[in-house]
Every structure is written in C-alpha cells, then in structure tokens.
Amino acid sequence: MGASGSTRRVTFEADENENITVVKGVRLSDSVIDRMKEPSSPGRQQRGSGAVNNEELKKRIAEELALERARRDSEAQKRRLKQEQMYVRDEFGKLLERERISSNEHLTRAILRERAATEEERQKAQRFARQLEEKDRELKKHDAYYKEQLARLEERVNHFFSPFHEEF
C-alpha cells in the first residue's frame, strides 16, 4: 500500500569491494538518512563480512522505507479525516440552516393563519353586534308602537266609559 502508488523499481548494487551498497530509485527523507548515518553497533562491525553488512543494510533500508510509507499514509489519512470533518461540519451547518428556514416558514404560516382566524372572529363579532343593535331598534319600535296602541285603547276605554260614569 504505497502512498503515491508509483511503479518505480528499486535496485541494490554493491561496489567493487562490496563495502558500499548503492540504492537507486528510492527517495529517502532526512530522518531516514540521519538514522542511516548513525554509527553501527559494535556487534555489527565485528561480523566482518561485507555481504552480511550489505544484507543488513538492505533490510534496514526496507524497514525505513516501510516506516516512511506508513508515516505518509498516516499523514494522508489525517488530511482526509480533517477534510471529511470539514465536509460533515459544512453539511451539518447547511442542514441546520435549511431546518431553521423551514421552521421559520412554518411559524410564519401559523402566525398568518392565526391572524386570519382572529380577523374572521372580529368581523363575525362586529356582524353579531350590528344584528343585535338592529334587533334592539326593532324592539324599541315595537315597544313604542305597543305603548301608543295601549294609550289609544285606554283613551277609548275612558272615552267609552266616561259617559256611563257620569250617570252613576
């Protein structure tokens, strides 16, 4: 699992004396080069053979390359994770904004419905008040008419009975 996915070939060559291994086609970080420059432990130098050192060097380089690839992969994963977090945060923010707008629209519609219902109730109350006033005027007219009729009847009764009353 290489970080760059390249298909470079790495070759190992030994010099004439087999004391130095030449690695071609490999990029090494400064930390890898510094670790390779560190003096070897005394046990390694006493082994003596250049071929053993060559094999150990190849093994060490391969390990360093694997560590470097793992570090690059880890950094790439961290970058992807940060990008994904930013994406999720942005999407969550957009979702919250849409939800806020939606709830504001619902609230606005509910307020408008309530205002319309209140206005309808107010108009209905005014209509009933006018009807009540109209009935009250009619009742007053009827009351005045009946009082007038009663007065006429009383006057007639008095007029009719007053000649008899004088005779007795």
TrEMBL record:
Membrane topology term: Lipid-anchor
Keyword NADP (UniProt): no
Any Pfam family matching the protein: MIC19_MIC25
Subcellular location: Mitochondrion inner membrane
Keywords: Disulfide bond, Lipoprotein, Membrane, Mitochondrion, Mitochondrion inner membrane, Myristate
Region (Disordered) residue spans: 32-57
Keyword Lipoprotein listed: yes
Biased composition (Polar residues): 42-52
Any one of the GO BP annotations: inner mitochondrial membrane organization
GO cellular component terms attached to this protein's record: MICOS complex
Highest taxon in the source lineage: Eukaryota
PANTHER family per record: COILED-COIL-HELIX-COILED-COIL-HELIX DOMAIN CONTAINING 6, MICOS COMPLEX SUBUNIT MIC19
Protein name: MIC19 protein
Species of provenance: Myiagra hebetior
High-level lineage: Eukaryota, Metazoa, Chordata, Craniata, Vertebrata
